[in-house]
Structures are given as C-alpha cells and as structure tokens.
Write a structure and sequence with these properties.
5-stranded antiparallel beta sheet, 3-stranded mixed beta sheet, MetI-like fold
C-alpha cells in the first residue's frame, strides 16, 4: 500500500507537472513556450507595436528617407533632370569659385561659432552662480532664443548700418573715435591745379619751393563750400613779413562770384583757422604751427629753407565708422550675431549640468589650496565635459545649415564673400542658378558633413547609457 501510495503520488506529481496541465497553470510558473514566442520582452505582441509605429515610420520615410534618396538621385543628373551626368555636379562644386568660398566660410563657421558660443555660455553659467541677480541675467541672455532667425537678421542688418545715425555699432565706434581724435574742419580742401602746393603721400600737400624769411609764404586752398566754413570765419589777412621767422597765410582762395585773383588775398575771401602747417627738411618735420583766426601762421627761423607741408589731418573727412558688412568683416559680423542668439542656449544647458556637479569636490579643491581659476580649469570644466560636448556637437550641426542670417544680413554686393553652403544650395537651385543638379550635389555634401558628427553623438550617448 505504501508503495502504491508513493507511486500514485509520484505519478500525480508527474501528471501535474505536464506542460499545459492544471497544476502548472495554477502554480505561477513560467508561461508556455508558445506564449513566449508570441510576445516581446515588454509583454506586447510585435504586430501591435508595429501598428503603433507605422504612422511615425510613414512620416519619417516621407519627410526624411524619400527626400534624402531623391536628392542623391537628382545630384547625378543635369540641370533639368533629363540627362545622367554621374559625378559631374560634384566636380562643379569643387571647382566653382563661389562654391569654394562657401566651403571656406562653412569651415570658419564650424571652427569659430560653436567654440565662442560654448565658451561664453560656460562663462555666463559659472559667473551667474555667484550673483544674486543671476536668474535675471540668464533670462536676458536667453531671450534672443525666442527671436526667429529672420527677425534677428533684420535687427543686425540695422545694427551694422554704415551710417552712424542708423547703425548702433558705428554710432558707438564713432563716439569713441571722436572722443580721442578730432575731425578736420576742412574736409575735401585742396590747392589749385599747377600751384606751388602738390599732393604727396598720405593725402598731404607739400610746397615745391622752400620757405624763406622776410616774405609771405602763402598757402591758398580751394574746394571748400562757403556753407562748410566755420560760422566765425573772418576775412583773411596778409601775414606781416618778419626777418627772423617764416610767416604766411592759409585762406580759401575763392570769392563768391568768382571775381577774385588766384593766389591773392582779395576782399571777401575767408581765413582758414586751425590749419596745421609743418616745415619739412630731409623728410623730417623740424617745426610746426597752426593758423590763427585770420589765417596767418608763424614758424621759427629754423624753418627757412624747408618745404611747407599741410598734413592730411587737415583735410580728413568725417569719420563714419567701420564697414562691418564689407568684404573683410562681413563673415565675422554675421558670426557675432549668431553667437548673440545661441550663447543663451549654451548657457542654459551648461548651467543645468553645473547644478549636478558635487559641491563637495569644489570645496575640497579650495581647501587643498586651489585658487578659483584652478578650481574652474581643473575641476569644473572636466566635470562638465559631457555637457560641453553635447553643446558643441549641437551647435556644429546647427551652423552647417546656417542660411537665414547670411541671406538677410549680408548686402547684395558682399553676399558672395559671406556665402555658405546652405545659401549656395538655394542660390544654385532656385535663386537664379536654376541648376538643381548642382544644388542637390551641395545637399549631399552637407549630409555627408553632418553624418560623422551624428555618429559621434550617437556613440557618445550609447557609452553614457552603459554607465
């Protein structure tokens, strides 16, 4: 009986353990093998997951995959898309001068703009931690991010206006310049043709003859409208000859109506006061004087035998500031506007990373004797390295497709000097070039430039995910 009971129990146990038996279904053991095959790790059937992903996949294919494939295909055909040309469009890209300028400018953008924006964002994030009004400062710095590229381009197009009365940048530059350097009262003044004064280097005028004592050494000028003369300009007077000095008069050798005699101080001809006169011998200035209200000047006796020179500072026109949008500075000026917009973005991300830095490490470094610069360079920056890489990579991808700022800020006559690949893509395809083959080739090149940065970013995210 005992053996039969044991046998029955064992058989019952074996029967209860059979796949699909009631004992297994009620015991909370692993599900049947067929069920495992029908469900994913998350417990969802694969066809249900695919059904939910289908709309996103369709949109991704229509808006990303198809345009990329079509652009690659289109880059192998001619301007109107009817003839296969192979890699000829890519050869055009790397041989056309305007496109090569765009490639050079893109390299400058990638090297400068992300670096400067990230550096400023780092400085702002670190410094605003130490002030009570740091939140308000961050708000002001981040505010340009709320402005579209179009609006920012219009703003900086006005900021960089050449006219100081309209352009803020030149208004500041001119104000600083005029604080330390005065403007000439007689811009555009010049001697009469075939007179004793002749043009010399740098915009100055030098006499052909040498100065002598005991006779007037007059320096007549023309080319100044009567309306541009100072309000207190009076009648010019002949200088009294002196036996031990060189004297003369500087005046406007023109009388209203044109009835005066050239080289002679006639009634009604105005004195030019404040004109600097130099005595030059062997290329060196040995004496100088300034004309008075009546136009007369007096040089010491050592000026005898020297040539008289009116330096260019007497005739320089009004300083109008810097040509920000000229061929030389147009690209740096546009990069500055980009940094103004994106430094706030970098600051916010870096400030978020800085909030996660353990304060104990910073305090320990200070206790060990490190100054603030050493703490920043050897502790703060290394701990923020992952965040700095994220910001740099994001901005690098962003500047590779920069278009709006360059198109709006750069004037038509210097747009070719500020050209970038995204703008050249538009110009080649739709902006007058009417060659979508070359435009598509530029698009493919931009894609190839972005792909390595994206691969680097993906690998970095995977490495951080494994930690």
């Amino acid at each position: 009986m005992a053996d039969a009971s044991l046998t029955g129990t064992a058989g019952g146990g074996a029967a209860g353990a059979a796949p699909g038996g009631p004992a297994m279904r009620g015991s909370g053991g692993p599900p049947p093998r067929g069920v495992l095959a029908r469900k994913s790790v998350m417990g969802t059937r694969p066809w249900i997951a695919a059904l939910f992903l289908l709309p996103a996949l369709v949109l991704l294919g229509a808006l990303v995959a198809y345009p990329i494939g079509y652009t690659v295909w289109r880059s192998l055909y001619d301007a109107n898309g009817s003839g296969f040309v192979g890699l000829k469009n890519f050869h055009t890209v790397f041989s056309d001068h305007d496109i090569l300028v765009a490639v050079r400018n893109n390299a400058i953008w990638v090297a400068v703009a992300p670096t400067v924006a990230t550096a400023l964002g780092l400085v702002f994030a670190v410094l605003t931690e130490r002030v009570s009004w740091g939140t308000a400062f961050k708000l002001v710095v981040f505010m340009p991010m709320a402005i579209s590229m179009l609006a920012a381009g219009i703003i900086f197009r006005l900021v960089y206006e050449q006219d100081p009365s309209r352009g803020v940048a030149n208004a500041v530059v001119v104000a600083v310049h005029d604080t330390f350097t005065g403007n000439s009262a007689y811009p555009g003044a010049r001697p009469r043709p075939n007179s004793d004064l002749r043009p010399t280097a740098g915009g100055s005028y030098t006499s052909r003859s040498t100065a002598a004592m005991g006779r007037p050494n007059d320096l007549p000028l023309i080319g100044i409208p009567q309306t541009n003369l100072p309000g207190d300009a009076g009648q010019a007077k002949p200088a009294a000859p002196e036996a031990d000095a060189v004297t003369g008069t500087v005046w406007l050798d023109f009388r209203p109506g044109g009835t005066g005699e050239p080289g002679v101080i006639d009634p009604g001809e105005k004195a030019l006061s404040g004109v600097k006169v130099q005595a030059v011998k062997d290329g060196k200035v040995i004496a100088s004087a300034t004309s008075g209200k009546d136009g007369t000047y007096t040089l010491p006796a050592k000026a005898a035998g020297a040539q008289l020179r009116l330096p260019a500072s007497n005739f320089n026109g009004k300083y109008d500031g810097i040509n920000w949008l000229g061929p030389t500075l147009v690209t740096p000026a546009i990069i500055a506007s980009y940094v103004w917009m994106w430094a706030g973005f970098a600051m916010v991300l870096i400030a978020a990373g800085l909030a996660g830095v353990p304060r104990e490490l910073l305090e320990q470094a200070r206790v060990d004797g490190a100054n603030e610069w050493q703490v920043f360079r050897r502790v703060t920056v290394p701990l923020l390295a992952p965040v700095l890489v994220v910001v740099m990579v994001t901005l690098m991808i962003n500047v590779l497709k920069i278009f709006d700022l360059v198109y709006i800020i750069a004037p038509g006559n210097t747009q070719s000097n500020a050209n970038v690949l995204a703008l050249q893509l538009y110009l080649s395809s739709f902006g007058g070039g009417d060659d979508q083959g070359v435009g598509s080739a530029i698009g493919v090149i931009l894609l190839l430039l972005v792909v390595p940065v994206m691969i680097f970013n993906i690998r970095r995210l995977r490495r951080e995910g494994r930690r």
